[in-house]
Batch of 2 targets.
Target 1
Amino acid sequence: MKKGVLYGIGAYVLWGFFPIYWKFLHHISAFQLISHRIIWSFVLLMIIIFFSKQWTDFRALATLKTLRIYFIASILIGIN
């Protein structure tokens, strides 16, 4: 089987189990949950960038225009 098909099946299986996962987190506030997701995603991204030695590429892409677009996108995602 091709990798793409396996990735697709894996994504659908995970998507199917998400309701069970969210059910276990009913006692946690939405604000705390989104805060943890943001912080841990950032930490993981920095670790991946550091160990893959792509720090200079990452810094080169961080222009003011790009940061502004990402900021607006993050606000819209957070509101959603």
Target 2
Amino acid sequence: MAAALTANEAIATTGLVDVAIGGLTGKQFDVRLNPDWTGTCPPAPDDPPDLSDVRTRVILLDAPDRGVIVIFIGSMYSADFEAFLAEAMPIVESFQFDLTQ
């Protein structure tokens, strides 16, 4: 899943970082719309929002025998992204997963 996202020409990504949250391990990276990409996101509304400033942290955690847990943490404005991460990541890092049920 991480390879497919990082290979997508429409988005620019940071390098993959190993992460462990709530007893699960996985990968973390940040994404944004690739400034060199000229395509559109189908279906594009008549007045699409400006996605060029949106920033998102993607966390993919391996859940054995259950697939992947996906967590998105996003900010509509790049200027707010780091401050939002500073508030949101401690909450995400406090998650605990019970996969026995």
